[in-house]
From TrEMBL:
Keywords: Membrane, Transmembrane, Transmembrane helix. It holds the Pfam family bPH_5. The chain crosses the membrane at residues 43-60, 66-85, 125-142, 148-171, 192-214, 226-249, 308-330. This is Bacterial Pleckstrin homology domain-containing protein. InterPro entries: Bacterial_PH-related. Residues 339-429 form the Bacterial Pleckstrin homology domain. It comes from the Bacteria.
Length: 442
């Protein structure tokens, strides 16, 4: 995060931390000191936050861990934004003190550039490759009789695929601006942006599909290949992160190389609209715009859609914390969070992160008390921590539903034709009592 944030201190289109400096002042000692100071603060912040994050390694209840995780996450976002805002003000003051204000020029419309704005855009037909991969993986796993899990993964992958296709469409619709008076440079600059961003959206659609499916393969193949697949998974994750940053950074470098070839870079007064680190311009019809670092797409808060997006973001963050923390507090502090009830020849199992399950006793083919869960498992929905496991899992190739407190033994295992059920009560004696009651009913 510090590395990406520090990129704002490196000149891009002569912009440093949302302030546009004259081309001949980019290497001025005051500007270099200003940039160096911002990068230094970012990495100092990263060090402090990383040390604070070490608290998460201390033994604690799951609810306390998750609450602390979210608080540290919010602190990270807030502190990073505060530093950026402070340095935007410093940069603006530096320009005023030295009288480096640039004259605002009207936006220049190049009709030829508008007509040719997408000539280097990667074809959307490449997204059919990802769609084919999704269908192929789903078919191969369907033959392993993984049941509803296949449909969950297929819907998830199609959602990712559709999101990236929409991203490609947004890139296609991004308007162009003449950044210089040189038509050739403007065209090359636009072609670079459209090619790099559209090709990245296609690349992400392919690699994310593979990353989503690999963990499931570990439940369907020989245990001898488990470690190998996990190594492949993590290698792909690092490759995905590294190649994405490298690709965008390469685009940024090429854009800067183009602009340095022109002495007529135009300034349209955009600094005013980025003074809070977020673009706000009610007179700009664009909803999605390139950010000023050159590595992302931002939203225009001057549009209704931008306001809705920014308004939903904190709501989603708070809801995510509540959804994650509240059930964990129930598991940690409620005297009996994982409940059971025998009623009308039916066993009712209930707990956080999962809907109540009704199991007719006549459908139970086998019941047993075991000391351990199957080692080959993957969670498809629900909760899985060192202390608890509730929700839907794939255990040794069979669909399973878990209501487990790992600190309580033994584990009650119920076998039905469609799936297995695993249950523990916080009080081991209650688990044994339920086992005896089911035995008596059967």
């Amino acid at each position: 995060m510090a590395f990406v944030s520090a990129l704002a201190a490196k000149p891009h289109n002569y912009v440093i931390i949302e302030n546009t400096f004259p081309a001949d002042k980019i290497n001025d000692p005051q500007v270099l000191h200003f940039s160096k100071s911002y990068r230094k603060r970012q990495f100092q912040l990263a060090l402090i936050l990383s040390l604070l994050d070490l608290i998460l390694l201390l033994p604690m209840k799951d609810s306390s861990f998750m609450l602390l995780f979210f608080l540290l996450l919010y602190l990270t976002i807030g502190a990073n934004y505060f530093i950026m805002l402070r340095y935007i003000r410093k940069g603006h003051q530096l320009i005023i003190d030295n009288k480096w204000q640039l004259p605002t020029q009207p936006i220049q419309i190049d009709t030829k550039l508008v007509l040719n704005k997408n000539r280097k855009l990667v074809s959307p037909w490449w997204f059919l490759l990802t769609l084919g991969l999704n269908l192929l993986f789903s078919f191969l796993l369907y033959r392993q009789e993984l049941g509803s899990l296949i449909w969950i993964l297929l819907v998830t992958n199609l959602g990712v695929w559709l999101t990236l296709l929409v991203t490609w469409w947004v890139i296609r619709r991004l308007p162009v601006r003449s950044l210089t008076d040189d038509r050739k440079i403007n065209q090359q600059y636009n072609d670079l942006t459209k090619f790099y961003w559209s090709s990245l959206s296609v690349f992400l659609s392919v690699i994310l599909s593979v990353l989503i499916y690999i963990p499931l393969l570990t439940t369907t193949i020989s245990p001898n290949y488990f470690t190998f697949l996990m190594v492949v998974e993590f290698a792909l994750i690092f490759f995905f992160c590294g190649s994405t940053i490298w690709w965008l950074f390469r685009l940024r470098q090429k854009q800067d190389q183009l602009l340095t070839q022109s002495t007529t870079v135009r300034y349209s007064g955009d600094d005013y609209y980025w003074r809070y680190g977020i673009y706000y311009n009610p007179d700009d019809r664009r909803l999605m715009i390139p950010d000023r670092i050159g590595m992302n797409i931002s939203v225009n808060l001057g549009r209704v859609g931008g306001k809705i997006f920014m308004g939903l973001l904190p709501i989603i963050l708070v809801l995510a914390m509540l959804v994650a923390v509240v059930p964990l507090y129930v598991l940690d502090y409620h005297p009996n969070p994982l409940t059971y009830e025998l009623k009308n020849e039916t066993l009712l199992l209930d707990g956080p992160f999962i809907k109540e399950k009704k199991i007719p006793l006549n459908q139970i083919e086998d019941v047993a008390l075991v000391d351990h869960l199957p080692t080959r498992s993957v969670r498809t929905s629900g909760l899985a921590t060192n202390n608890y496991a509730t929700g839907y899992f794939r255990m040794d190739g069979k669909s399973s539903v878990l209501f487990i407190d790992h600190s309580s033994k033994p584990i009650l295992k119920l076998v039905t034709k469609k799936r297995d059920y695993f249950y523990t009560n916080k009080q081991p004696m209650e688990t044994k009592k339920l086992y005896q009651e089911i035995q008596a009913e059967k």
